[in-house]
TrEMBL record:
One of its GO terms (cellular component) is extracellular space. The keyword Signal applies. Residues 665-682, 803-814 form the Tyrosinase copper-binding domain. InterPro entries: Bactericidal_perm-incr_a/b_dom, BPI/LBP/Plunc, Di-copper_centre_dom_sf, Lipid-bd_serum_glycop_C, Lipid-bd_serum_glycop_N, Tyrosinase_Cu-bd. Residues 1-18 form the signal peptide. This is Tyrosinase-like protein 1. The keyword Zinc does not apply. Belongs to the BPI/LBP/Plunc superfamily. BPI/LBP family. It comes from the Eukaryota. Pfam families: LBP_BPI_CETP, LBP_BPI_CETP_C, Tyrosinase. It comes from Mizuhopecten yessoensis.
Amino acid sequence: MAGRSLLVLCGCIGICVAVPSTDPLCGMKIRITEGGLNYANTVLIDNLRTKSQGSTVADMSHTEKHLQFQLTKNYVRELSIPNSHVTLLKGNGIKWSARDVNISVSSDYSYRYEKKIGFIPIKISDHGGLDVSMSGGSFDVWMKMGMDDTNRPSIATSSCNCNIATVSVKFSGGSIGTIIYNLLHGLIGSYLKDVLKKNLCDTIKGVVNHDLEKSLQRVRIDHKIGDKFQLDYGLLKAPEIHTESIESFLKGNVNWKNTTEPMPFDPSPFPNTNSTDKMVYVWVSGYMFNSLSYQAERHGILKRTLTNGDFDDAFLNTSCKFGSVCIGKFLPQLTHSFPNEVVEVDLMSRKAPNIALIQGKLHLTMNGTMTMHVKRTSASERQYLFTMDTDMTSVIDISYAKGYLHSKLKKMNFNVCISNSTLHPIYERALNFIMQNIVKDYIKPKLDGLGKTGLPLIKTGKNPTKLIVMARHQDECCTFRDHNLIIIMIWCLTRTSGSMFPIMLVAVLLGFMTGTTNGFVQQIPLPDELQECYKYQTKNIDITQKPSQEVNIFCITKYLYQTAHLRPQRQVTNQTISYVGELMRRVISKHEKKGHRSKRQGFPGPRIMGVRREIRTLSRQEWDTLMYRLNQLQQPILTPGQPPFVPYYAITDMHMSPAIIQAAHNGPNFLGWHRFYLLLLEEALGMPIPYWDSRLDYRMPQPTDSVVWTPEFFGEGFGNVASGPFAGWPSIPSPDRVPLVRNIGNDGSLISDNAVNELMSAFSHFDITEPAPPQQMTFETIHNAVHIWIDGQMSGISSSPQDPIFFMHHAFIDYLWSMFRNLQRNSGVNPENDYPRKGDRMHAPMSQMIPFSMMNIQGYRNEIESPYAPSPTCPECGGSNYLQCVPPGYCASISGFAPGFSSTPGQRGSRPVPIRQRFETGLRDPRTRGDTMATVPLRGRRSVKETNKTTTPFSNDASQMNKPYQNTFIIDGDSDLKKWVFVPVRIIFERPPEAKFESFIIKDGHLVNNTDMFSPSKYDSFKIERKQKVPATYPKCHISGSGASKVFIQTDGIDYSGRYKDYAVVDERLPISSSMAYVGVKTPVNGAAKFYMTAYDSCGRVCRPKCLVNGRYEDCSGAFLISTAYPKMYGSTYEEAVQGVWTIGNQLLAESHSAEVPIAFICKISKQWPWRI
């Protein structure tokens, strides 16, 4: 790890000497000071500390005598290097030193101990968790720099020393005996200490001498300017290392094509200054620009013949049309001698233009001739008129935008005189008018046009050098963003009239250390966990058998569970731990007493709190009492000197920590953990939690119309909850607890009868818990779908309990689990003995049920099972006024009023919500808003079918297309919108094969109603590959009548907690259509961030990601790193992201700026799975 860091640090030095620089006979000179290197080192160490947290370490194994052990799943918990320093050794090189290096690593261990005592073999094995802390580390690395025979910089280590002071080992889990513990403790500590000492210097040397040196050998030392010129910026000599700075000298001259020849002039000498108060200095003279103008003049580039096509209003006509202005108006002798003819102007330079840099502007001096001829229509040859000698001086502003240097003509002065003429007389006023028009209509537009197009900056290898013009005199310095290196330089001096002037600050980005960098977005490998999941889920099926989006969302969810420890979470307070601990103690005490009374029968005993019932069967008094007690728990308790304590949020916070996310989800402990969680809230309330049977709403034609989304029950389903019992929650808002938000029916699904029937057809818990095969339905699958269907806080794994619906939804999951357990009992199986042995070790039956002081298997005990009143059935439907019987004999909810989204900022539907990791599911209701789908893709056996009577496919496009998606704008628990930036994404969409539209042609006066005029098969000139193998879609995938449909784009943080989702509208009528979206990711201002981006159409087909690499879109993984590297290809606001793609300055472009769209998704009907696995 230290070696990798050194690669970045040495890159700062290597790149500084690879960028154009001068000696007294050259164009440029660079000085990087020791202060600059140490600032770079400080930023590097801070970035290294942040990025190393959660990084993985290779598995290790070791055998010594009778003991063998293995360390697997190693990841870094913490790294600190508080003391590090770069020292320049005059004439010798560079020394990088670090002291007090501390590193903490967590691992899974397993061991096997075998030994014979006499004739008795002893074999002991075990496994568990391991925390290793190494402290007091140090290293010193000496490096030397030089120049190779290709004029490139070179670097190599000359020496390296390292040491590790102490290693401590702490075991968790397992059942290690004292003797084995002592053996393992000493052996692992000694082994790791030796390994680290041995490998640290070897790693550093390998990175510097091989990786960095190889990278420097690929550095470009020339750059083509157009197809005729080449800039040479190779080193002239090896960098000079002084006690306070490194100085480099580069050529900085322009050659003609591939030739090399000396210039007839020398660069201006730079002043002899020893300044080192800045971090980096760059001196530049006009030598580079003047060598360019010299080559252009020498090879005849500065010649041009102007015709009427170069001017407005036929300016070179000898005779003027009525109301127009032409050259004949000011030279009437032309009109008299050559009526109705056209003049041509030959431009040619007399000597090479001279360019000087003065106070941030280009000063251009040109000397040339203008020769005029008349091109007569009756003659093949031109007739000479006169010649003018012209001297022009111009001032040009320089600016930078989006990877290009731009220029604009500020002012131009000229002097003209006639050197030869066949026309007499020619007055000075006429000459000035001619020159003004040539400048106005030709020279200025041409210069400004070229300046507006801009000059792309120098490329190093495959990666463009990026330049930013910054405010003068700022004291900037080196900054690091992962492998991208930013060096802030002062382009400070140029020679004019014997004086030196400060010019500008220039930021040069060289991303040579990675091969596919383009601006701020850099492709990174797909995380191993995602890669393995995609492989497993698609191993034995092809794309025609299962919608690819079902695989995609399942794998993303699993990845978020597995890697929860890599993403920041808010810490649980000691007050919360004490409160919940006391609740748990009371729950266990009561149920232990209850267990003694019911032990003989092995079935649940009398319920302590009472019977749980469906919410719509409660009396109004019972419901109001429950709501009153929930609101009382939500009121803060104020203690002097302490922050407000809210009992309800103390309970919800227990669902937040990474360890609980992993231990309570994606495994068999999901059911038992949440059963205890319900008991905690019941203990705090002092009454049973009713269950919300969402099947009753699923059976409605439109579940979003249910009465539960009214003030009678849950309050609003769309936007902020402003009415009902939860209005005004929370009573004390904070960045992590903002008003409740819901976006019901946008995605996911409520629970269907078919899903429940499939669960109840299983025999054991092994069949209905995660992890499970792709075609298998589980309790967790249907549970996740409801979280997503409600959205808002409910869609976030850690924030979902903040909405009280969470507990009523989980009470229903617990009710279904009780139904399943009763079926087991009827089959002679005792459920408490049927704990599955599968999944992560945190879900093992004898592992601790974090954070409670019990084992996971105790969550399956019969005595903690709660009694339930059966779900309402026809004809009475529980006697509820809120339920009714519907065909074919089910109870369903009645309709109520569900307010819609507000378009006013700050009103319902617009407030950020603290969402971190989110639930995912393969289940989707056909009636979800916001897309054109009409299906429920079950993650179950394909024989299970939803009845047509439970779905209502939309035919009204407005019902699908006019609903926006409300994002929650939360990253790492903070609802600050400034922590988001927006990335432009292009969608290329191929017409789906099932699309058919009622847009008919008329032939011979008759409507041909069996045709689709948009179908590509109707046109011979438009060839579309006929797909023999079509990917699976969600059943009854709906195609809208208008052709408008949505492609959804989603980002999930890899090293941050946050999700953003948006959609692009595409036209399914067209063979190929294109659209844009602007998708949120974490801002890289405080450090580079990693995210995973996916896209899928409304029928469940995942699109293929493409990355912009050197101007072309290439296949990539979909995992990215965003940094502050330039050009800035994201917007700090949504508006800025749009403007960056569609405008240059104040001008609206006719088409999007492709160089500003770093990511594209190709939604093409393919025979292959969309992932690179």
